[in-house]
Amino acid sequence: RFKKAGLPIIGDDIKSQVGATIVHRALARLFHERGVRLQHTSQLNVGGNMDFYNMLERERLESKKTSKTNAVTSIMGHTLPADDVHVGPSDYVPWLTDRKWAHIRLEGQAFGDVPLNVELKLEVWDSPNSAGIVTDAVRCCKLALNHGLSGQLDGPSSYLMKSPMNQRPDSDARELTEEFIAKYARQAPTTKPSKAKARTS
Q1: What is the distance, to the nearest Å, from the Cα of residue 42 to the centroid of all Cα atoms in its chain?
Q2: Which domains does the chain have, with CATH numbers?
Q3: What's the distance, Cα to Cα, between the start and end of the chain in Å?
Q4: Which helix (H) or strand (E) holds 143?
Q5: pLDDT, mean over the chain
Q6: pLDDT in tens, 119-150
Q7: What would the mean pLDDT of 44-61 be, rounded to a whole number?
Q8: Rounded distance, CA 85 to CA 39, Å?
Q9: Residue 154: closest CA among 136, 134, 133, 168
Q10: Which class for 76: exposed (0-12), middle (13-18), buried (19 or more C-beta within 10 A)?
């Protein structure tokens, strides 16, 4: 639809600068790369802004949970049963205002079949944590518009969003995004910006 309209699109559901999902992904990937078999994992988020308030509506909560779960499980290196993965917003706590608290736990099996567990709490201010990512997404879309590109922007989608068409390790997605920016930021625009007509009273 976006390609037919001649418009670029960047994924769905922002990955914050250092948010719960990207930290969870990094740890799940670390387990995989270091040979620790992840057996159970959970991520419970609470916050007090409108994002969490809106998720009191069950339908919104389910879509957010699916997005977050896919972002984490896509990086594990193996498939976990659904009952062994719980990732998603948990509750709305008004006095937290724009703060978000995330409780993340990973349980795995290391060399010698011994247990290896990680548990952490992340506290962030939610809106500023996403603002820079939104800015980068807008810049990438502007570069695409300037060069007549439409449809999904593959690298930026994978790097900046939780639900892109193609899930990749964040290091690979970052490399593709940097290549995209380097390529199109150095080239002169191929399309001219439209000029708004002056209004007369």
Answers
A1: 17
A2: 2-12+129-185 (no CATH), 20-125 (3.30.360.10)
A3: 38
A4: helix 126-146
A5: 89
A6: 999 999 999 999 999 999 999 999 999 999 99
A7: 87
A8: 9
A9: 168
A10: middle
CA distances from 60 to 35, 53, 130 (A): 36, 10, 19
Give CA–CA dist 94/108, Å, rounded.
34
Sign of the CA dihedral running 100, 171, 78, 40: negative
Name residue, tokens 């409780």: 103
Alpha carbons 43 and 68: distance in angstroms, whole number: 9
Assign 178 to helix, strand or coil: helix
User: Do 144 and 6 form a contact (C-beta atoms < 8 A)?
Assistant: no
CA distance 183 to 195: 26
Question: Is the backbone of residue 77 left (phi > 0), alpha (psi -120 to 50) or beta?
Answer: left
Mean local confidence (pLDDT), 15-39:
94
Average pLDDT for 158-166: 91
